[in-house]
Amino acid sequence: MAVGISYITLGAKDFDAALAFYDRVLAAIGWSRFAVHGAYAGYGPGGDGSGQTVWLCSPFDGGAASFGNGTMLAFGADTHAEVDAFHAAAMAAGATDEGAPGPRPQYTPDWYAAYLRDPTGNKLAIVCTASQGASA
Amino acid sequence: MKAMVSYVTIGANDIDQAVAFYDAVLGALGNRRVWQQGTWAGYGPEGDDHGTVLICSPFNEEVARPGNGIMVGLHADSPAQVDAFHAAALASGGACEGPPGPRETYGEGYYLAYVRDPTGNKLSAFYRPG
Predict the structure, then answer these.
(1) How far apart are CA A116 and CA A96, in angstroms?
(2) Residue A112 in contact with partner chain B when CB distance is under 8 A
(3) What is the least distance, in Å, from the CA of B12 to any CA of chain A?
(4) A56 has which bridge partners?
(5) 3-state SS string over B73-98?
(6) What is the per-residue pLDDT across B34-74, written as a single tens digit (0 to 9) for each?
(7) Does the interface ipTM go beyond 0.95?
């Protein structure tokens, strides 16, 4: 397996609100929270912390969390239905829409994605690139 | 692909400077630039032709800026790769946010280094045994 990214941290302005948000949204792609260490909460597939992980955190420097411009975290989905479910769960949990679920053939012919911001403002994408994504 | 981060984008205001930086630091970890189109460039490990770390000018055409609390942790195969990553970053316009060394409080045998890229985005290189 190609490995480039081990983990990503995202800042949370309101840690408890962030956990409520990510618990709901990441469940749509089979991820779950496997650890909370102080002001860090780890999410990953499989629930054991192996493989790639995403950590919600209060910033290391003690300052307020902020979102970056140009920074975006894209999660992989197996099916178009997972993309739709991820976006719907996010919107129901307080996200801001940055692009509704649908094809983006200008990126690649099979690109099906949705874009949103979490309650802190971090931009997320959910992407399916399977050629039979709608029926898988 | 299921159960994976598909990719992450990192904003840059000067794509030439950013590409020089990321060629050096991601190259030290065994990744390479697999494509570039205008102000976007994609990097990935061997076998990844899409790219998992994408450098870009922001989609909204405003100034790129780092977020506080956001960090991309990059896989390293060895402590020596972590050292090389950190050295390459400092030689390419990056800033130190934590020198290479063991971080046993995070896990046994963990070895990391932390830097910021020329835009201010925070990165780490992360080695763990096994």
Answers:
(1) 6
(2) no
(3) 7
(4) A10, A41
(5) EEECCCHHHHHHHHHHHHHCCCEEEE
(6) 999 999 999 999 888 889 999 999 999 999 999 999 999 99
(7) no
